Amino acid sequence: MPFTLATWNINSVRLREGLVARLMSEELPDVLCLQECKSPMDKIPTEAFAALGYRHVIGRGQKGYNGVAIFSKLPIVEVGAHDFADLGHARHVAGRLENGVTIHNFYVPAGGDEPDRDRNVKFGQKLDYLTQMRDHFHGDRPHKAILVGDLNIAPREDDVWDHKALLKIVSHTPVEVEHLAQVQDAGDWVDVTRKDIPDGRLYSWWSYRSPDWATADKGRRLDHVWATGDIAGAAHSSRIHRAARGWEQPSDHAPVFATFDL
Known about the structure:
The chain has helices at 17-27, 46-50, 121-139, 163-166, 174-186, 192-196, 213-216; strands at 2-9, 31-35, 56-60, 68-72, 76-80, 92-97, 102-107, 145-150, 189-191, 205-206, 219-220, 223-228, 235-240, 256-261. The protein has 262 residues and is of the alpha+beta class.
């Protein structure tokens, strides 16, 4: 059963309800994973999305901050939600499709502005979150699973607009990249996007601070689609919907897509 999955940091699902509906209507993903919903689950406009065919919803909400949700045309049941690093944040939910595929939706902490855990508590929280993700997947090795979300790290040199300039900038520091690599190794996760698009600069986030983000193109690939090695070969057609970054009142992230023949 082939299905298409998209992941998108929406930066407030209620504020950008129209953009979510537009993506659902125009791009027709079977499963849409959202991060930074910034809403309790009972305040998310689920009825409007159900009218577009997304009748199955699981998630974890939080007023004004964080929040993850999975909207699906396909039946999905919740199978877990972890509070890694004990932050009390809504940053993870997992669901299982009828074909046995488990989908993990993550919103990894951004980490603040200074890459020093002694001077920046948020950076330490980010590293601890990644460490507990690693330990979780070591202890409970995933199979037939997909991991998506805003992981807030651009791991490769060509995942950022200027590798050398960003080596000391949170999201591309060597310590973050190493922590993310350990998570990937712990779950035998394959970076599906880079499997399909192995070469060239690739971004999914552009700062609001840039007055002309498209021309400047100083982006970072912070949003990811991974799959366990046993199903990664079934993934194809990966793409980043860059145009959505230019929609009216957009998120600063663009949706990332992949299709799985399973």
